[in-house]
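Per reviewer request, we include the raw input and output of the structure prediction for the construct analysed in the revised manuscript.
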Amino acid sequence: MNTRLKTWFGKHASLMKTIYVLAWPAVLEQLLQTVVQYTDTAMVGRISPQASAATGLTTTMTWLVNAPMFALGIGFLAYIAESIGAKDEERARKTGIQALYFIAAIGLILMILTLSISPFLPGWLGAEEEIRANASIYFGIICAPMLFRAATIILGSVLRGVGDTKHPMIANLFMNLTNIVLNFFLIYETRTASVLGMELWIPGAGWGVAGAAIATAISYCVGGVMMFHTYWNNPRLSPKGHSLRFDSYVSRRCLRIAFPVALERISACLGQVVFTSLVTRLGTMALATHSIAITAEQACYIPGYGMQAAASTLAGNSLGERNEVKFRQVTKIITAIAVILMTITGALVFLFPGFMMSIFTTDEQVIAGGIRVLRIVSVSEPIFAALIILEGIFNGIGDTKAPFFFSILSMWGVRILGTCLCLFVLDAGLEAVWICMVCDNVTRCILLASRFVRGGWKKRFARIE
């Protein structure tokens, strides 16, 4: 057995090294983002459960707003990675230039749209009157710098397309540090703290939820500027000395990949919005429990979404090389690694759910509810790991239509329909709602795995440009 393992590792040593080089910065980036999300939620949670509910209410709407930007990022990543695999560096550079046009367009459109609906959104989501004002203010402020958010998301994907996962990680590090530091000074009132027996005077604006939103908005600006600087100086992408004209052919190719992803993400995020609005019917405390538990669960995703970036890039490279054997190897190896890692993180969540909830709130009722739902979801983390990687694999080769239909089927046919049945027919609580969420993820994983095994992706490799 040891001899077989040595032979296997020797045969795949080069690929394993490439996966490691691409994955570790992306995993670290996910870790940093999770730490910041934890810090942000914990700081707001110290104010009150109502403050947690106000910031958590619009989280799914934020996912919806991000959906077209992430979709465009996937379109550019897939086409750039394919170009690099085909040794066409000039096409990769030209694709990156087109991304600038889309950043400007989508950033301005989404900014105008989100600022227009922010006063009405909490009411549309069915929030109780006590949290509507704060929820509206929070959503409006974090959506104001949408142009910078678009640059952070799309240019991050462009850089990953050429295998640069390190610099997006650094940009996100500074963005996240900015958020944490500003949270510290903007959320709370001026106060004194005892450190090593010394009383320290700490200035504070005391803006509460609005302070958290301003910190997030400024951090987006920092991230966008740094990501653009990194892109502009990347030797494989930099447009310096090259034509900046709009290329309709390249743009159409990227949009062809991105459009089904956008529809899938928008559909899924709309489902999340409906899902959250259904949870609000259980009351503010249930919504606070749900929002905080969602944040706590994100620790499980760190290795999965980090590995997904490597999976997408290497899958796109395999397509450019027209190398199906490499594509299969990449899929199997990265999926196995992600499943092992997320099995470990899922086990930790199952064993210590109370500790994770207590990071964000001191409310005993919220903590007790969070313990129950986190244990429910923790057992499904290995399956969710496979789902994350398969999603990245199909996105990396631009095979996005079938996953779009799978997402609609599982989100609306399993999660939303199941939740409606639990709440309106069975009169069940938050635990049943989370079981429906788990069933959604399991269903989508089975559908994607079935497509991979059946070889539905082979049409992409058979297509000769």
